[in-house]
Amino acid sequence: MSAFEFIGGSRPLDFVNTVSWGDGAEERLRTYDDFLAWCRAAGVPVGKGRNARVLRKALQLRATLHRLFLTRRGESDFAAFLAPALRQLIVRRGKWTLREPNHADAPLWWIAWEAANLMTSDAMANVRRCSNDNCLWLFVDESRRHNRRWCEMRVCGSRAKARAFYARRRAAH
Question: What is the DSSP string of 36-76?
């Protein structure tokens, strides 16, 4: 079982969700090994070599993506991450894809490339943040009516409904 949750509907959102952005912030990428573990669990190719600098860059990319997905601002910051990925583009089987270079930055290139694809897709209009103020994870709302409020009903949704139930009971007494 993975220590990471994959509920965002896309790998870039799942990457952004490796931290809880609200008051109860919980960091899941404390070390470079944590980042590599997330990459492997998410199916993101990893390069050879160990490089702690990549973790710092990954955390910067994650913060940039979070801001970009929420506010649609920060394109110039994101461009600095996307440019190296674009230099790795090749056509394989009639589709643009990235090489799988043996470079420590390879996972960052994959995440940036997939984020760019998400941002230019129809799904971007359905990127939402969890309504739980202690979570704020991002997800693609694929519900039929596009009214999903929680990253996961079994976690944030259930807690919110329980709080609302107890508040109604207290108010009734």
Answer: HHHHHHHT----SS--HHHHHHHHHHHHHHHHHHHHS--HH
In order, the DSSP letters of 86-153 are: HTTEEEETTEEEE---S-TTHHHHHHHHHHHHHHTSGGGGGEEE-S-TTT--EEE--STTS----S-I
- Residue 51: alpha-carbon gap to chain centroid: 21
Determine the Cα–Cα distance for residues 158 and 66; give it in Å rounded to an integer. 24
The CATH fold of domain 11-172: Jann2411-like fold (1.10.3300)
Query: Which residues share a beta bridge with 89?
Result: 98
Each residue of 17-31: pLDDT tens digit?
Answer: 999 876 666 899 999
